[in-house]
Amino acid sequence: MSARWWQWAGRDQVSRVDAYTRQSLYLLLWGSPVFLALQALALVPEDQTALALAVTVAGLVVCVPATVVLREVMEAYPQAGALPRRAVPFLALLAVGYVAALWLPTETRGLAVVLLWSSLAWSLAGLRGRVATGVLLAVLTVTPALASREPRSALLGLGVGGFFVFTVRVSLWLLSVVQELDHARRTRSALAVAEERLRFARDVHDVLGRRLSAIGVQAELAAALAERGDPSAPARMLEVRAVANEALREARELARGYRATDLGQELDGARSLLRSAGITVELDVADLPPGWHEPAAWVVREAVTNVLRHSEATTVSIRYGEDGVLRVGNDRPGPAAPAAPGPTGAGLSGLADRLAPLGATVTTERGTERFEVAARLPGPGPAALPTGPTGPTTRAGRVAAGPAGVAP
User: What is the pLDDT of residue 245?
Assistant: First the structure.
């Protein structure tokens, strides 16, 4: 249940600013007539004191519908539109009161007009729009002059009325800014949650996708060996079990947020995985800058997964050249390989989106005899830090800095 307007404890900061702004405007709406009446009563002749008190009470009664109108104006802010629904009968009441005030004695007439003028100024000052503002200021300027029959009163009405309008507008503007900032904070929190879910989905795709591909390849090989009666079939099935256990371990690390992407581990894993599928690996990443180790590990992971899923490759090369491009290529691309340059498929598209904030780009090149994923990694490191508890490690640097050549 939301707190009532007069309650303070239990509110959050935004709700407190809202309550403070509204209560302040209500206080000004009701306090101004009281202050003006106290000043006017001291100047009214004794024979008009009772009449002046009656006018003061009537002015306070007018503050009741003025409060309702002010509440509707605050609810509508900052939109500029028509008058609030209850403003029309309120304006009619003010017009009747103004006409009646013209028949009062001079001293009391001034008090009545000022009380009506104050209710009008505070209740409708928050209306936005040039037309509404212009009409309100014109009425606030002309009304005192007509009542007192002194042109100089017009300047006083314009000055004080402009101050009232400014005060209400600034108060409501500050309230709207605080509300927008709170909305932005909530949106940012929701976006952070969505980004974390997307990151976790990418990690699950990258890690489990490769492991499941390996399980599929090794299980198919073990089945073929078993059909031929090859005694090495049980050993292959044990390898399948080992890969499954490794996938389970990595899935648990992902769920706990402990797993960091390591280039050395990715290269070792890719080499072992491809070798188990009968694919030769050529590795040359000695010159890869340490700042790009983790993004390069993403590229290697996704490219090797695609090799296992979509090709009949016999050779895979992983090379980093002097042009700042990491290339992962394979021969004998399958029919499911992309048919045009550019990152295609959910995995490569996600990889491109992940590398774009870092200043890197991903493209693909396909020929009849070769398919290649090329990641341009400019400079010594990414333009932005990768998210998550990751970063280049000593082991990654050791593997990357090793001698180039064909993996054993």
Answer: 82
